[in-house]
Design a protein that fits this description.
Blueprint (H helix, E strand, L loop, with lengths): L3 H6 L1 H4 L5 H10 L1 E5 L5 H11 L3 E5 L24 H12 L4 E5 L8 H5 L4 E4 L4 H13 L4 E7 L2 E7 L10 H4 L12 H4 L3 H20 L8 E6 L4 E6 L16
Parallel strand pairs: 1-2, 1-4, 2-3, 4-5
Antiparallel strand pairs: 5-6, 6-7, 7-8
Helix pairs in contact: 4-5, 4-10
Bound molecules: zinc ion (ZN).
The site of zinc ion (ZN) has 10 residues, from helix 8.
Length: 255
């Protein structure tokens, strides 16, 4: 049973017949790992915490820089120099003290990804390097955890959900990006710049897809890629089939 305070806090969810009190209980029982507490992670963490996702892991080994504040809306000027995972924890605690936050002040690698992900129901990542993305993808497939993956570049963003184990034809991240592009072709917001609000758009959409996966609501983005073009003010969704040659998911068991 929800407490009176919880009923009031989550009333706008409870009023949705697709969510209701039962859906809210599911959110409160959910364990979600957010990898990357940056431009995408900031609004994502805020919405997951506000929504009452009961246990949130925050994985980031970075400290808040002044140049982060243009888009990483979870942090304030006073936070510059402090650990992101710790400041994210503090911000979430102010927003919703019901949430249990677990700080992981570490960079994700093949060596630690499995151990990090194992105790969570679902993983969301918004990081800026391919080695980390591949490590997360492999571990999420091995542990059969859905992976919500978001990326931004300059004025554009993309989002998908990867759970190749959930059905024939569903892709993983490696199906989308078989090999990391050469260093000079990688769009890196540290070098190329990014319109801050674009990270907010895609981080918020990542929160919606995460909540949908937990609540089993609507149509999953698995098997599709959502593309946002900020300059054209356009969204597109394209089909994203599994690559039958994919080294990471072609041999796995599918439901
Ligand atoms: Zn694959």
């Amino acid at each position: 049973m929800l407490s009176d305070a919880a009923r009031e806090r989550y009333l706008r969810h409870i009023l949705l017949k697709e969510v209701g009190g039962q859906g809210q209980q599911k959110l409160l029982a959910a364990h979600v790992l957010v990898i990357g507490a940056g431009g995408i992670g900031a609004p994502l963490l805020q919405y997951l915490a506000a929504a009452g996702v009961g246990t949130i892991g925050v994985a980031d080994d970075d400290v808040v820089a002044l140049s982060n504040l243009q888009r990483q809306v979870l942090y304030s000027t006073d936070d510059v120099g402090a650990q992101k995972a710790e400041r994210a924890h503090a911000a979430i605690a102010r927003l919703n003290p019901d949430i249990k936050v677990i700080e992981h002040r570490t960079k994700i690698t093949d060596a630690n990804a499995g151990e990090l992900i194992a105790s969570y129901d679902l993983v969301v990542e918004g990081i800026d390097n391919f080695a980390g993305r591949y490590a997360i993808n492999r571990a999420a497939i091995a542990l059969r955890k859905p992976l919500v993956s978001a990326a931004v570049g300059r004025f554009d963003a993309q989002l998908s959900v990867f759970k190749p184990f959930a059905g024939a034809g569903l892709p993983c991240y490696r199906c989308l990006v078989p090999e990391a592009p050469p260093r000079d072709a990688q769009v890196n917001c540290a070098e190329e710049g990014v319109l801050g609000a674009v990270t907010g758009v895609i981080g918020t959409l990542a929160a919606i897809e995460t909540l949908k996966e937990i609540l089993k609501l609507g149509e999953s983005l698995a098997g599709r890629l959502l593309l946002y073009d900020g300059l054209a003010a356009q969204f597109r969704t394209i089909a994203l089939p599994a690559d039958p040659q994919c080294p990471d998911c072609s041999a796995i068991a599918r439901d």
